[in-house]
Design brief:
With about 475 residues, this protein is α+β, with helices and mostly antiparallel strands. Helices cover about 35% and strands about 20% of the residues. α7 packs across α8 and α8 runs antiparallel to α11.
């Protein structure tokens, strides 16, 4: 059992070992209802709510497999391989992971939540379920005697409630009664503007057994960043999944929206989900990126090289929506290439300064709108391929790369989808069912986007063409 899980169980706020322990945990807290949830392709919580007594009676939890093929608009792609292979839209089984059991602190009645895994009736993991996709990638590391370690950083904006999508978003007003007008990077005063909100976020997080490492104000107006402690990839993906729900709910209580859109405001920086990654020997716990002398190993550079080679082909996972590509532009803090460098924030792959035991690679490409399970899986898959293929890394970038003429990443969603679909190595890892389903969803979302006429078109085309 990972150390993080042991600590959570001692804390008692999150996770138990069995259904018997869950029965006691629920009774002790007088929980009345339980949310049985599973993350879909967008990272949205799907599932069922039921009385605790019915849940404990042991019914088989099921859900139509089609739920895992929905687009962000709630539609279904026409060229859906899942429907083609299963036109009856059969149920899949949802199996609870009791290590994720926690309260839902914003509910008025005592309520708990429990993340589930998805399986076919013959016991096989559902190939397109995001949590199962991440477990598959983690399993590849385990087969080699490795254990991946990650630490996500999630950026988001606080905005005024916006009930009409035709109107641009605006920063909210804090305790001073004024909205932010300038850059406030790392400003404590700017965080203090929303003290009551952040106090509630911390209270909600503590009640769920979620641990925030640091909270900072980012560059944009009312743009924040929460950093999580490093640990097991699946546990950290679960935490990001739950943190997004938590932050949104807390913001609503304070008459604000919290948005994880990659580029919610045109004149403000985009929001990222940076992923710090390292690999340790599963038997000894030694960081395989550092040798006995503390120097970087060939494995470290191969991991970087795999990221350089394969990141462009998984960009559609890191940047899953049309809006995501508005963040990936030159002359910004977001990368447009696959360069790497030491403590260089202008490249996609940054090596932070650290002691040898903490040597790691930061992937700065993912947007905050990405599904955390899929983003972590894709990032680790790229590094894994570099390790097993023994790839060679390029020279590190010594200078700023934000204005570099080299653009290695796809510029739009359709181009990114095609790269993912055509990459045989990645298809071999993720499996054809997931690749075909995911790319069909993204193409369907693009088609619905094309049905919308933007303000830019009305501004510049209406009377000029």
């Amino acid at each position: 059992m990972p150390p993080e899980t042991e600590a959570v169980e001692r804390d008692g706020q999150r996770g138990v070992a069995s259904v018997e322990a869950a029965r006691d945990w629920l009774a002790e807290r007088r929980i009345e209802d339980i949310e049985c949830i599973v993350p879909d392709q967008a990272g949205v919580a799907r599932g069922k709510m039921m009385p605790v007594q019915k849940f404990l009676a042991g019914p088989t939890m099921t859900m139509p497999v089609s739920i895992l093929t929905q687009t962000i608009t709630g539609d279904y792609p026409e060229d859906n391989e899942v429907f083609q292979s299963d036109p009856a839209d059969q149920d899949i089984l949802l199996v609870p992971d009791f290590s994720t059991l926690s309260v839902v602190p914003w509910e008025s009645d005592p309520t708990a939540q429990l993340i589930h895994d998805a399986f076919h009736r013959d016991g096989r993991p559902v190939e397109i379920a995001p949590r199962q996709v991440l477990q598959k990638i983690v399993g590849l590391y385990a087969e080699r005697g490795w254990r991946a370690v990650v630490a996500p950083e999630i950026e988001f904006y606080l905005v005024k409630p916006n009930k009409d999508p035709d109107y641009p978003l605006e920063p909210p007003t804090g305790r001073s009664g004024r909205a932010e007008a300038g850059r406030q990077s790392y400003s404590i005063a700017a965080i203090n503007e929303f003290d009551e909100l952040f106090d509630e976020i911390y209270d909600f997080s503590e009640a769920q057994g979620l641990e925030i490492d640091t909270l900072i104000h980012e560059e944009g107006a009312a743009q924040m960043e929460i950093n999580l402690r490093h640990g097991d990839p699946l546990q950290l993906a679960d935490q990001v999944f739950l943190f997004k729900r938590t932050i949104r709910e807390a913001a609503l209580r304070h008459d604000m929206y919290a948005t994880f859109m990659a580029k919610p405001m045109s004149r403000e920086p985009g929001s990222a989900m940076h992923i710090h990654q390292s690999v340790v020997d599963a038997r000894t716990g030694r960081n395989v990126f550092s040798d006995e002398k503390g120097d970087p190993t060939p494995e470290f550079f191969a991991f970087i090289a795999g990221s350089q080679k394969y990141l462009p082909a998984v960009t559609c996972i890191f940047a899953p929506y049309v809006n995501s590509y508005r963040r990936l532009v030159r002359s910004s803090s977001a990368p447009v290439n696959v360069m790497w460098g030491y403590d260089n924030r202008t490249v996609a792959l940054r090596v932070p300064f650290s002691d040898p035991a903490a040597r790691r690679l930061e992937n700065r490409l993912p947007s905050s709108d990405a599904n955390p399970y899929l983003a972590i899986a894709a990032s680790l898959a790229c590094g894994y391929l570099g390790l097993v293929e023994g790839l060679k890394v390029t020279d590190p970038a010594a200078e700023g790369a934000a204005n570099d003429d080299v653009i290695d990443l796809p510029r739009g969603l359709l181009e990114a989808v095609a790269l993912f679909e055509d990459n045989e190595a990645l298809t071999g890892i993720f499996g054809k069912p997931f690749v075909s389903t995911y790319t069909a969803i993204k193409r369907a979302e693009f088609e619905t986007f094309m049905e919308v006429i933007s303000p830019w078109e009305r501004e510049y085309l209406l009377l000029n063409v």
